[in-house]
Amino acid sequence: TWLTPGTGLTITGTTMSASGTDISGQTEDTAPALNDFIITYDTSAATNKKVKGENVRKLYEGSATLATATTNTTTTLADATGLTFTADASATYIVELTGAYSTAAPATGIAVALNIPSGTVVGGGIVPVNSDGVARITSQTADDANLYTSGTVDAANTTYPLWGKWIVVVGVTGGSVTLRFRSEVAASGVTISPNNGFQATTVLNWKKV
User: Fold this and answer.
1) Which residues contact 142 (CB under 8 A, 6 or more apart)?
2) How far apart are CA 43 and CA 23, in angstroms?
3) pLDDT (tens digit, 9 = 90+) per residue, 110-145?
């Protein structure tokens, strides 16, 4: 049960104090926020209930899912529609990508990067296996730019996994953080897919740290 302060209970930061012998007068908070202080208690006794305090921890603060397949046939980074979130100014985020992609030709690779409102970004996309059996990392050390593409794949129009992880330190201007992608070869398309041959969903997750 999530609780908010009520009769007989005071919570200041991570310090809790009670004026009575139990906390039966508390109200339930059904939507605790990140880092809220919460308590759990043993309801088996009428008085002198056992109380445990802890802070809310979440694996991710938010998620965005790709609704439809998005294709880019150019070597210029373009938005992956829907894979975006609004970042606060002067905040730090861990951003993770899990998804699927395909290419129009075996010799066409993919690159991914984040476009941020201000500040710095370090990370990149990870393509686990290419046609030579070696994983590739499409590194990023600057806003809306990538250093490498993933390289060739075994077959065209075939689903391959795509992962990514970044740390984003937003500057004084907050705003949209958006996943962008491009092809390795002009006029040869790469597609990020929500469902390309199997039940795969491309998701962007983020968490403020």
Assistant:
1) 121
2) 10
3) 999 999 999 999 999 988 777 777 888 889 999 999
